[in-house]
Amino acid sequence: MHHMDRPAVAAALPWPALIEALHDVFRTGCEAPLRHRHALPPSGGQPASLLLMPAWQAESPTGGKGGGYTGVKVVHVMPGNAALGVPAVQSAFLLSSGTTGELLAVLDGGELTDRRTAAASVLAAGFLARPDSRRLLILGSGRVAQALAECYRSAFPLEDVAVWSRRAASAEALVATLRAHGHPARLAARGAEGEGPPEAELAAADIIAAATLSDRPLVRGAAVRPGTHVDLVGAFRPEMRESDGALLRRALLAVDTRPGALAEAGDVVQAIAEGAITEAEVAADLFALCRGEHPGRTDPAEVTVFKSVGWAGEDLAAAAMAFGNR
């Protein structure tokens, strides 16, 4: 049995190959029930959760020999960890043989999640964003925000990247990290208290990628100019949201998976409840895009939105790839 820590997982999942692995699993499919969520005793006075995300595939997602893999990601969400100087989300992925059930590897779940989340967003952007997109606005300053900046860099000709956070110091720290990693685009940090980033920042972006824990809209439809692609990553519970209903109403809306989005994606769930959109206005999921069943963007002036909540099949494909590249 192998153990792969955060650096080992990162080294085994280069962006272009990981994006292609996710394309393959959305094209071919795998069994991945909706995540199991269990309430834990409060952590730091806030709700805590245990999440279980199983998936299995009859054949190897990486095309190798054997009967494929099964796996499960175990995630603890413990908000009280912040006071202890420990990340609030702790996770591990258990990869097993699909033939015997033998445990093959335990992988760092945080790095696996960060990278497959960013890769899924950029996979979707390949269908939804303008290929000449050069200005990226990142909302948020955590590890997923960093992964998004790095992954978008691998697929688009970025010239300007702005990072916005309610805490200016956090935005500046992420920009410093990106510079240290050799990010070639012009980088700028933006920090401001209040409801969200300035409208001028939203209007200047070709791609807006939001990875926050916001429960109030940060991206408003009226502020987004034609041709923009908006990538909504952060609102993974129904009570959370990063956009208003007006944005989803004017956009071509795609999601990672319909069952997950309609059950858990706060942006979508709340927009439907408000009457801004209906379920029928979710134009496509990543299965339809990757299988050529929906063309994605067809007009350079379209506003497009991708909303993800995560799918266990992504974790399985990424874990199998990392195991194969160990």
From TrEMBL:
Stored Pfam families: OCD_Mu_crystall
InterPro entries: NAD(P)-bd_dom_sf (IPR036291), ODC_Mu_crystall (IPR003462), ODC_N (IPR023401)
Domain of life the protein comes from: Bacteria
Protein name listed in UniProt: Ornithine cyclodeaminase family protein
